[in-house]
C-alpha cells in the first residue's frame, strides 16, 4: 500500500529552493527561510517565479518527487518529474483505446457517470442538511433530472452525445450552485462558470481549485505509468493533459466545488481577499492564496482511511475530504 505523503506549497515569490543533504532548503535574498526533509514529501508546488537548483531537481526526479511551477495566479508553467513509470505495453494500450472513438466513449462514460452521481449526491445532502435554507423543490427537481441523464449516459456509446449529456447535467447542477452559498451572499455569488479570466470571486476560487486538482491528477497518472496527455473524453490537443482532465471530472464536485463552498460559508475568505483588474478579471490576493492552501492542507490530512472522510457539517472545511496527499504551506 502506498503511503500518502505531504505536498509542500511555496507561496512566497522569488524564493530559491536548493538541496542540502536529504533536505530542501528555502532561501530569499541569501536569507534562510526554512529547511524541510524530503523523505516525507511527495510533491513540491511553487508559486511565482521560484528557482530550484539542478541538484534538487535531480534528487527529486530520482525519488519520484514532482516539482511543479505555477504563476502567482495559479497558471501552470512547468513540472519536473523523473522517468516514466509502468511499462510501454500499458501506454500502447492506452493509445490504441484513445484512437478508437467508440471504445473511448465506453471508457469516458464512466467518468461522467461518477461526476453526475457525485453532483446528485451533493444536492441530496443539501436537501437533508439545510432544508430550511434552500428551495427543496428546486433541488429535488434537478436531482431527478440528473437521474434521468444518468440513465442516458450509461448506455451512450458516442462521444459527441456523451458530451451533450454531460453539458446538460452540468447546466442543471450549476442552477443550484448559487443556492449552496449560504453566507456572504453580497460578495460571493455564482451565475455562470467563467474562466480565463474569472469574472467573480467564486469563479476565481473554482479556477484555482481546479488547477490544483489537475496537478494532483497528472501526478497520480504518471506514478502508475499512464500518459496524462492522452485522454478519452478530452481529445488530443498539444499542451493539454487530456487524461488528467478526464479523471478530475468525477472529483470536481466533491473535491473542488465543496471545498470552495466551505471556505465561503465558513468565512475563511472574504471580499478583501480579491481584487478586480481593469479588464474585469477577478484575482485572489497573495494572502488569500496562502489561506486557501492552508485550509486545503488541513482538509487533506483526514485520519479516515476510506476514500472520503465524512464529518458532521456538510459544508465545513473538513467535510468530505478526498484521500489525496496531506499538505503543508510554506510562508514566511
UniProtKB/TrEMBL annotation:
Database matches in Pfam families: Cas_Cas1 (PF01867)
This protein's record includes keyword ATP-binding: no
EC number: 3.1.-.-
Enzyme class: hydrolase
Binding positions for Mn(2+) per the UniProt entry: 166, 234, 249
A GO molecular function held by the record: endonuclease activity
Named cofactor requirement(s): Mg(2+); Mn(2+)
Family: Belongs to the CRISPR-associated endonuclease Cas1 family.
Functional note: CRISPR (clustered regularly interspaced short palindromic repeat), is an adaptive immune system that provides protection against mobile genetic elements (viruses, transposable elements and conjugative plasmids). CRISPR clusters contain spacers, sequences complementary to antecedent mobile elements, and target invading nucleic acids. CRISPR clusters are transcribed and processed into CRISPR RNA (crRNA). Acts as a dsDNA endonuclease. Involved in the integration of spacer DNA into the CRISPR cassette.
UniProt-listed HAMAP family: Cas1
Subunit and partners: Homodimer, forms a heterotetramer with a Cas2 homodimer.
The protein's name: CRISPR-associated endonuclease Cas1
